[in-house]
Amino acid sequence: MDIVGALGRDPPERGPAEDGRLPRWVAPLPAALEDVAYRFVWVVVAINLLGTAFGFWYYRFQFARVPVEMWAFVPDSPGATLLIALALASWAVGRSSDTLAALAFFGNIKLGLWTPYVLVVFYPEFLANAGPPLYAFLFVSHLGMVLQAFVLHRMTDFPVRAVAVATAWYTVDLLMDYFVPVIGGVTHTSLPYPDPQPWFTTTVLQVAAAGAVVLTVVPLFLALATRVETLRARE
């Protein structure tokens, strides 16, 4: 039985550069690891769908406190894992979507880094509330989201229109999460301290928001840099 044929496809070309690689700083994963992700893409999709289901369960209490109209802005991390599952699945069935890939790239880098950031910054209560096993799982699994985002350059060169859609969505999400709630309160992931609680020279909310702002810019820069390096390699 062809295991790879059942679980994935031959990976896309490695890129237009002479050695088949983009610069390491925009494509940091070893090519062999990228190849595994594509050859076993349905396994990766299934893992992300399981993570999405767990994430929606994790947010169940927050859903209960937020108006239905604002639910789309609540499940940040599970939304990102759902997007990358859809992006990879669309590639696997021969209908690759640049927009899905860009959304998935933004979400998995932003939320994959933001969650470990707040887990470390607010670790006393996070650790006390979650317990060491769940705390470690959340930390490691979110870093895994970042790693998987870096396989997406193999299926897209991040055209400007797709990057614009991803930038627009994650900017609106940022505003709803921290700054401009349209209905009810802000929709950021629940933190283990009250938003107004002082934290060093600022507040808990501002510390979380600062990380979210920076980590919205990071994937924008990386996506556009990947496009620039791709175009440069084609010259």
Automatic annotation (TrEMBL):
UniProt key word Glycosyltransferase: no
Keyword Flavoprotein: no
InterPro entries per the UniProt record, alphabetical: DUF1405 (IPR009845)
Keywords noted in UniProt: Membrane, Transmembrane, Transmembrane helix
Highest taxon of the lineage: Archaea
Chain ranges passing through the membrane: 40-59, 71-93, 100-122, 134-152, 164-184, 204-225
Pfam family for this entry, one: DUF1405
Alphabetized PANTHER family for the sequence: DUF1405 DOMAIN-CONTAINING PROTEIN, HYPOTHETICAL MEMBRANE SPANNING PROTEIN
Name of the protein described by the UniProt record: Uncharacterized membrane protein YpjA
Organism of this sequence: Halorubrum cibi
